[in-house]
Amino acid sequence: MIDVEDAILSTKTARMSTMTKSIRLLLIEDNPDDATFIEEVLKLQDSYTTVDIARVSKLRDGLTWLAKASFDVVLLDLSLPDATSTNSVSRVLAQSPHAPIIVLTGLDDRETALEALKKGAQDYLIKDNISGDLLIRAIRYAVERRRAEHRARVRAAVEREDLIFTLANDLRVPHIGAMRAFDLLVKESLGPLNADQKNLLLKVKQSSHDVLHMLQNLVHLYRIEQSSQKIMAVPTDLNHLIKQVIEDWSYVAEENNITVKVQSDLTAPVLVDGTAFKRAVSNLIHNAIKFSFKDGLVNVTCRCEGNWLYLMVNDQGKGMSSTDQEKLFQRFWNDNDTMRHSNGSGVGLYVCRQIVEAHGGEINCISEEGKGTTITVRMLKAGSPN
Q1: Tell me: the pLDDT tens digits for 95-132?
Q2: So what's the pLDDT on residue 382?
Q3: How many CA atoms lie within 13 A of 35 on its CB side?
Q4: What pLDDT digit, counting tens, does each position of 13-42 carry?
Q5: Cα distance between the two ends of the chain
Q6: Do 360 and 374 contact (CB within 8 A), yes or no?
Q7: For 234-380, CATH number?
Q8: What is the pLDDT, as a whole number, of residue 25?
Q9: Are strands 51-56 and 270-272 parallel, antiparallel or unpaired?
Q10: N or C: which end of the chain has fewer CB atoms below 10 A?
Q11: What are the structural domain ranges in the chain?
């Protein structure tokens, strides 16, 4: 049993002087005396402006709290009625991977301590040896260590994305040059080719086109996230733009005998950023072709209702669940089983959404498993209202 009077006296005489922001703490402890001691110590601390404590006596109740709220630190007793030793550490981390855990135990067992640390605990305290200062210091170090890890992860993520952009942008240039060279060769501008040579060049050109498409999406994604999307709307022949996109992806359609049909009642140009909007349309049509069944049909429809423009791309492919539809336009999301609507990099439809919303429009999906998918873009014909 912890000596409450000695622990509180120690805390009063050696408080930390630096005040920092408040923290949220989850205490999972089934011994009421130990839980009361910890709460009393935390009331006296001055390391944080406030400490909000959620206290439970069973692991399952703690996991319920972690599922609905975030905590800066978890104090976890290893001797809980519904948990087995350090297995509780794994279960807490499975529910909340970024919450630092300080393990509390009445067992002076080095092996238990090492096992808890191996499973991801930040620190380990033996109840009979805990003083107020030791507990507060352990909490402070655990919180600050996790915050430092978070800052390091953020910096690493920024550096990683900078590297991806640099590589994607640098690789894009030679691929554009290669595409022009392939066009000259395939058109036999540099001399005649036999059938096998022409077929081989077409396959290499197609592979280069796929890589270029992915690189352009990554570059566009980086530019979107580094600065707000700037739209330069000009009168654009959307029918011609769609025709160009279909020609760009004709080789993908021909591989599986997929027919692409266009229905449009547009008779005049619309105000859009032609370059950006073509990127969005290209992603939509490429997805529909790529994930259609063999001998399938892709329908591209443009229609106007008042001042509203609707662009719909429908395929008759595998479709997807309602859960997948909710994630469809998220950054870097893809279905690991089918890579549905991922363009291989998981950024294609995220880029589409950013472009459409920058035009003042909206994009949504209707899909049914086994019956196909329809992506609909709705926007003002006059461009962004802003």
Answers
A1: 988 889 998 887 667 778 788 888 888 888 888 777 77
A2: 63
A3: 18
A4: 334 334 457 888 999 999 998 899 888 888
A5: 67
A6: no
A7: 3.30.565.10
A8: 92
A9: unpaired
A10: C
A11: 4-153, 156-226, 234-380
pTM of the model as a whole: 0.50
The sheet that has 73-77: what strands, in order across it? Answer: 51-56, 23-28, 73-77, 101-105, 123-126
**CATH assignment of 4-153?**
3.40.50.2300
pLDDT band at residue 11 using 50, 70 and 90 as cut-offs: very low
The pLDDT value recorded for residue 210 is 72
Taking the CB of residue 157, how many other CB atoms lie within 10 A of it? 10
The secondary structure of the chain, three-state, reads CCCHHHHHHHHHHCCCCCCECCEEEEEECCCHHHHHHHHHHHHHCCCECCEEEEEECCHHHHHHHHHHCCCCEEEEECCCCCCCCCHHHHHHHHHCCCCCEEEEECCCCHHHHHHHHHCCCCEEEEHHHCCHHHHHHHHHHHHHHHHHHHHHHHHHHHHHHHHHHHHHHHHHHHHHHHHHHHHHHHCCCCCCCCHHHHHHHHHHHHHHHHHHHHHHHHHHHHHHHHCCCCCCCEEECHHHHHHHHHHHCHHHHHHCCCEEEEEECCCCCEEECHHHHHHHHHHHHHHHHHCCCCCCEEEEEEEEECCEEEEEEEECCCCCCHHHHHHCCCCCCCCCCCCCCCCCCCCHHHHHHHHHHHCCCEEEEEEECCCEEEEEEEEECCCCCC
Cβ neighbors of 232 (< 8 A, separation 6 or more) are: 273
Phi and psi, residue 88, nearest 5° = -65, -30
Long-range contacts of 210-215 (CB under 8 A, 24+ apart): 210/344, 211/171, 211/175, 212/172, 212/175, 212/176, 212/179, 213/282, 213/286, 213/343, 214/343, 214/344, 214/345, 215/168, 215/169, 215/171, 215/172, 215/175
Using one digit for the tens of pLDDT, what is the confidence trace for 136-170? 888 888 888 888 887 877 776 666 666 666 666 66
Amino acid at 11: T
